[in-house]
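Quick entry between incubations.
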Amino acid sequence: MALLTIADLAAGYGGAPILNGVSLSAERGDIISLIGPSGSGKSTLLRVLMGLTPASGGQVMLDGVAVDYASKPALTALRRRMTMVFQQYNLFQNMTALANVCLAPVRALGVPEAQAEARGRELLARVGLADHLHKYPAQLSGGQQQRVAIARALAMQPDILLLDEVTSALDPERVGEVLDTVRDLAATGITMVIVSHEMAFVREISSAVVMMDAGRVIERGPPAAMFTTPAQPRTQAFMRAIIRH
Amino acid sequence: MAGADAFFTADTALFLVQALGRTLLMTLIGCSIGLALGGALAVLRGSRAPWLAPARGLAALYIETFRRLPFLVILMLVLFCVQAFAPDLALIGVATIAVTLAASAYLSEIVRAGLESVPQAQRDSAAMLGLSWLDTLRLVMLPQAWGVILPPAAAFMVMFIKDTALASQIGVVELAFAGKILVNKGVSPVLGFGAVLILYALLSWPLGRAAKALETLLENRRGAAHHR
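Done. Structure below.
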C-alpha cells in the first residue's frame, strides 16, 4: 500500500481554482519532485497536504487511511508524520537555532527536554551547524537558516518531508550547501515530496518527477525519461524552455 | 510668599501624598487589569474558530464603544451603574473601574496591532510543527509582538495618568483636585499647582523610563534579531 495517496485533490474557490483534481501517490522511500511553471499549484499542493490551506475537494490518505483535515486530533496526528520546510525558512525569530529545533519535539511530541536538546544538537551537527547552536536566525545566512529549518523538520522524525522550493530564496553561493544537505537526507531513505526549480538536482535525486500545470498533473515518470523524452506536449515545451537557458 | 505657611506643613504633605497615591492607584490598577483584559480581547478578536464569531462581535462592540466615549462620560456611566447596583463602593473604586474600561479598549487595539505585526509565516510554521494554540501565542507570537506593543502601550499609560484628573469630577481627591483644594484653602496657586506639576512629572517620568528599559531588555533578548 502506498504511504501517501492523493486523490483528486482540489483547492481554491470560484473561477480560479489553484488545484484542479490532483492525484499522486508515493511509496515509502520515494523522492517525488514536482516541477512546472510558477502558479501551477506545486506549493499550494504542499500547503494543502500540511493542512495550512484548506482543500475544496478530494482526499489525502496516509497508509490508506483518509486524513480528516477538519479534525484537530487528526491534524495533529498528521503533523507528527509529515513536516514541511518552507521557501523562506520561517524560523522562529525569537529563538536560537537550537531552540527552534527543540521547541516542537518538547511542546508537541512531549519529548523530555534533555533528550530533545541532545537530538537537536545532533541534527544541527548533521546539517553542518554545530558551531551555530546559539545563534538567532537574524545572525545566520539564508543557507544556514534553511539548514536549521531542515533540522527542525527532521526533529519531528517525520515519515514524509515536504520541501517547498528550499533553495529559491538563497544566494547562488548558498544553494549548494542546502542541496548537499537534502542529498544526504535522501540517502537515509526518508520519503520526500520536493518542489524545486533546480533541474539538475531534481534529475539526480528523484525517484519520480511530476510535471504540473494549471493545478493539474500533466505527466509523471522516471527522471531520465521526463527530462529527455517526455510524452506530453506541455512537458516537452517546459523542458525545451528550461534547456534553452 | 502668600500662603507659604499653610503649605509647608506635615498635613499638606500627607494630603498631597494621599492624592498622589490615588492617582497612581487608579492608573496602575486600571491599566494593569486593562492590559490583561485588552490582551484577552485582542487574542479573541484574532481567533478564527467559527463558533467564536459571536464573541468576536461582542469584543469588537465593547472596544469600539469604550474607545469612542470620552473618559468623563465613561466615569459618569460607571458612577450611575455603581450607584444603582453597588452604592457602597468607594469613589476611587468607581474611577478605577472607569480607567479599566477605557484602558482595556485602547490597549486591546495596541496588542492587536502587535500580534498582527508578526508575519503569518510564523503561525504557519507553528501550525506545521503541531504546536498548540496557547504555545503558539505564548512562545512564538507574544515574544515577537512585545517590541511593537510596548512603546505605544507605555505612551498610553503615561498619557492616561493625566486623564485620571477627570476623576475629580465625580469627587475623587486625586492630584489635580488636591491642588485646587489647597489653593481654595489659601495656598498660593504657584505653590499649590507647582507642587501638583512636580508630582505629575515625578509620576510619569519613571514610568516612561521603566518602559524604555523594558523595551531595551526585550530587544536584547531577541538577540539583535532585527539587524543583519
